[in-house]
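Subject: Interface between my chains keeps coming out wrong

I've been trying for a while to get a sensible model of this assembly. When I model each chain on its own everything looks fine, but I need the whole thing in one frame so I can look at the contacts. Pasting all components below, labels as-is. Any help appreciated, I'm running out of ideas.
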Amino acid sequence: MATKTYLEAIRDGIHEEMQRDERVFIMGEDVGAKGGVFGVTDGLQKEFGELRVMDSPLAESCIVGVAIGAAMNGMRPIAEIQFQDFIMPAVDQIVSEAAKIRYRSNNDWSCPMVIRAPFGGGVHGALYHSQSIEAMFCHVPGLRVVVPSTPHDAKGMIVAALRDPDPVLYFEHKRAYRAIKGEVPDGDYTVPLGSAAVVREGDDIAVFSYGMMVHTALEAAEKLAADGFSCEVVDLRSLRPLDREAIVRSASKCGKVLIVQEANLAVSVASEVAAIVAEDCFDSLDAPVMRLGGPEIPAMPYSPPLEHYYLVTPDKVERKLRDLAAY
Amino acid sequence: MATKTYLEAIRDGIHEEMQRDERVFIMGEDVGAKGGVFGVTDGLQKEFGELRVMDSPLAESCIVGVAIGAAMNGMRPIAEIQFQDFIMPAVDQIVSEAAKIRYRSNNDWSCPMVIRAPFGGGVHGALYHSQSIEAMFCHVPGLRVVVPSTPHDAKGMIVAALRDPDPVLYFEHKRAYRAIKGEVPDGDYTVPLGSAAVVREGDDIAVFSYGMMVHTALEAAEKLAADGFSCEVVDLRSLRPLDREAIVRSASKCGKVLIVQEANLAVSVASEVAAIVAEDCFDSLDAPVMRLGGPEIPAMPYSPPLEHYYLVTPDKVERKLRDLAAY
Amino acid sequence: MAVTKTTASRKQATLDAETLRAMYRNMLRSRLLDERMWVLNRQGRAPFWISGIGHEAVQVAFAMNLRSGEDWAAPYYRDLALTLVLGMTPKDQLLSVLQRADDPNSGGRQMPAHYGCRRYNIITTGSPVGTQLLHACGIALAARMRGEDTVTFTSIGEGGTSGGDFHEALNFAATHKLAVLFVVENNGFAISVPWEKQMPTRDVADRAKAYGIPGVKVDGGDAIACYKAAREAVERARHGDGPTLIEAKVVRLTSHSSDDDQRRYRTAEVIEAEKAQDGLLRFRAQLEELGVLTAGDADEMRAELLLELDKAQEEAEAAPLPEPESALLHVLAEDLR
Amino acid sequence: MAVTKTTASRKQATLDAETLRAMYRNMLRSRLLDERMWVLNRQGRAPFWISGIGHEAVQVAFAMNLRSGEDWAAPYYRDLALTLVLGMTPKDQLLSVLQRADDPNSGGRQMPAHYGCRRYNIITTGSPVGTQLLHACGIALAARMRGEDTVTFTSIGEGGTSGGDFHEALNFAATHKLAVLFVVENNGFAISVPWEKQMPTRDVADRAKAYGIPGVKVDGGDAIACYKAAREAVERARHGDGPTLIEAKVVRLTSHSSDDDQRRYRTAEVIEAEKAQDGLLRFRAQLEELGVLTAGDADEMRAELLLELDKAQEEAEAAPLPEPESALLHVLAEDLR
Ligand SMILES: Cc1ncc(C[n+]2csc(CCOP(=O)(O)OP(=O)(O)O)c2C)c(N)n1
Ligand SMILES: Cc1ncc(C[n+]2csc(CCOP(=O)(O)OP(=O)(O)O)c2C)c(N)n1
Ligand SMILES: [Mg+2]
Ligand SMILES: [Mg+2]
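Reply #2:
Try treating it as a single job with all components included. I did that and got this:
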């Protein structure tokens, strides 16, 4: 076991899987000599060559569409989208094609591929390099959507995604890349897709979150612990499908629920978690379900006062938790 | 007042607004001589000419992107997408551009336009002519999303949409086109965007729905009335923004809530309505929130047994209502 | 790089009688099946049909130049004839049009004419126009990575060439010299929209110039010219010389689909006049003239094919519909619900 | 239809000294501001900058041929020089780079170089590459509907020409003969990806052939050639003869942006060699040779522009940041929250 950054863990997972499985290749803008705009694919082209680490044209529909074709012809492509914000031109290929290939062919064809993209803000990325728009894909049957929050999960889940027989959207929080470090086992392991993880046990309030916000939630939970309130923090990890059992278990146990995400709330992952709780935990709830997320504005602005206003900070989480505790 | 179909009401609204306002024009596939694949624009090209009722190339990004540019240069375009299923290639223009134009320019620019598309199933449309994917857009700040369910609202809301200063997605249920008839006032009127309507008053269960499903819910409510249970049926009409006050009012009054939609449930409009109820109606709830929607499959299949299996029918709604009534 | 026009005469010599007869038979087989689909639709037994009538020659030409099960196809909805030559059967397609569980394309989940069959490397196709062109590039890229000499056929109508994926696919295939055959079946209409409202130049083959690849224009009603154009393009791709854009000028001898009525946007005279361009009739006349086919041969062929078709229809009609709950299957491999 | 090459010599005669000096001044003004942005970035006062250094000539050429406030522009992020000629000021752009509330482009909401200003008909631009080309078509269509003779400028890098919107826009503009000027600033790189991996032909101007419109290739380091190419294309558009695709071969004399380090993917020699192609240096030498500008004139101009710049920076730095809660404003007209 070594301590690694979130970014290194992703790279390690890709690297090892490319060594193990010749079918794995990467395609995306600047993934080659530059190693990606964040450095995730740094060094891979040197090792695996220009075909397996391919700089694509600036055309996201092309990146995903070509990956789909290659997947149908036996490969295991990684389609890298430079920023989640720029996945939009590929939505048709993702939602109309990748998500429906197994179903529409009645299981004759499948589409095993991974689409990676960095998301999230707090890095002076402004309106188009800060978004969290995973909710749009979490509605779509036929897709898996995952977001690791630790280096351990980042590696285990990228490997699991590459071995999964269906299309997986793997979103990486760009602030986590270098800020989050942790123990990463050497060698081969996977973290199952579709399962949440309790990252802190507690009895009073269940906090559901994903991505960078898990760390924010943990920070806030720590503060409440000092005052004798114990929060159970659940890292959703898989956003489609959600781990319904894990959600119901922690919500029922605690009786109070806070959902924290960076994205705006309307019709989002937080909505679905709240709905699951409202459906399945009626008898155990001691307080209204609460949600905390970004404001209902088109995206995170650039200027520091505006960007900071947007962000879900440990303070804001703490305030919500205290409201809930006091209920 | 005359009795008209839902389709005629939409056409009337467009027709009258085109007569009143020279800036309004329509662009889309087959909107001209053919009058659209369902006949919504029938006769309009003859009256307004080829520029104001323009057959576009088969390119949805083009249709929406051109409309955005025209809107910025003073026009009031209607971009018609032939089926909601085919809106995907235009998602970048809708989500990255139209939705963010006012915000990103700090109110210097705006994008007053309407994107119309038929949605929904039960017409042998199979996987790509039956979808209900409005949820993807309901997450996106900067957009309005509306779905009328009656001819009265269809006309009043298309006119309101055309006079709204921001981009409006106006989704039409294709089964309603000819199946739903109703009174439509002559001449000029609007139905405000952003407001829900109580279409049946009741005290026991609040049923929230939109589009064709409002009629399905009403049918089921009628059956329960025979047994002495009174359902309040709320037509959401505006899916972004949701009319939070109306939702809370009816849910609090009844204490029991069923949400009915044709779309699959995960991360959908139904999720958000459930979340609002879970947040704001904790003290008045007498039962778990219930949701009824399409199954979590990529889309509605073609073969009749499969299509029928997908559909949310009055029977299914009735069963859910009885479960809730018995709780 | 120039747009080349291939004429029938130049290549007649190179096709033997057997090939010519097989070609005719393939076209006729598709036509008869296609006509049967319309009958089923008009009888109310098939809610939808979208036809390949008038488009057969170029499809048959390409399919006969592919190695079935080894080469790949990413077709579009008018490619009935192509699927039959590659190995699918009239019964397969009747199962689809009748929405039966055993439909190999989709198990009755998709509309008919949404072709797909792994056995013959025909990828699954959906309704969104144009997406398949990029899949074809990915397929060819995978073949390149494994060092295979397979080629990938993909097709689209001229209307579809206005969409972004057309451009992204040609750009990518040309940049990487991939073994993709881009076939545009240009019938002059996208449903009701005539070509003049879709694109600035009459010839889709011109679009090849943007990518520095050969753009070939061929009369899609001239079966022999189609065959030769297909053979050349397939050879070029197989030998590593990259993609070709082939435009076949075809006629859509029906309405867009069973839901459309073309009399709303075309005059009766124009519709009538196009019938004279029917490639099947022209090919038959040509073969009779060449002495490759007698009127008797042709009638016999037709009778034999009708027999096959009747039997296929009988079997398809007897096949079961899907079970309702099977709608939940195959969302993901693990059948998550 | 052919790709035409315009050379400087042919059109020198047609430009008067005043125009030439104005052109030089416009280029220099943009260059000095651009260099200042880099300084602010390196000083840690501007988190991000993306430069137009090396691209100025073609931008200035087009802007000088537009009627500011009447014609339209849908630019991209390297078009600093264009915005200045159209009427925006160094202070405007400094307000943006310093994220101030009064930034006219976006009120500090967007990264710098996301230009937009209604007063000068410069539409708001976001980050997604390529979308603006379709907006330009819509703007031109609206002008056509109202019978106006305005033209619309739009620009993009060569990398952006691989995307679907490029194709859809050229196809639409050409089909309807819209008054749009499509300017591609080809610097040979999309961030780190060289043109050979983006596209199959060296010249983006070739793409015009797919649409039957003029494709013009011009040396983007030759200011006079750019001016002439711009004037011709603008005249063509204004007279109803439709769109032109103009490719300016430019050099990106900086890394892609302040977040990039081009030494990761380009050798020091190549980077050094490109400096010789700097259009600003070449233009100055040319003007001195033509006797239009003396070394003294040039230095005076520089001093005067630096003065303007210092004052602008001072004012911009004194301007307030936005109020935090103002982040909620202007989502919709009614400020729905
Ligand atoms: C992305 C998308 N938009 C719209 C449609 C609806 N549609 C189906 S076929 C068609 C016309 C296609 O015309 P063309 O490409 O010329 O092919 P043809 O039918 O003439 O062979 C349209 C608009 C679709 N299937 N996909
Ligand atoms: C749709 C989209 N994908 C990716 C990006 C990230 N990106 C920004 S600029 C750029 C390269 C652009 O290259 P080019 O078009 O040649 O313009 P240049 O910067 O060279 O002037 C990329 C990939 C983006 N902004 N938008
Ligand atoms: Mg066609
Ligand atoms: Mg470039």
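Reply #3:
Confirming on my end. Chain C touches chain D through 25 residues (CB under 8 Å).
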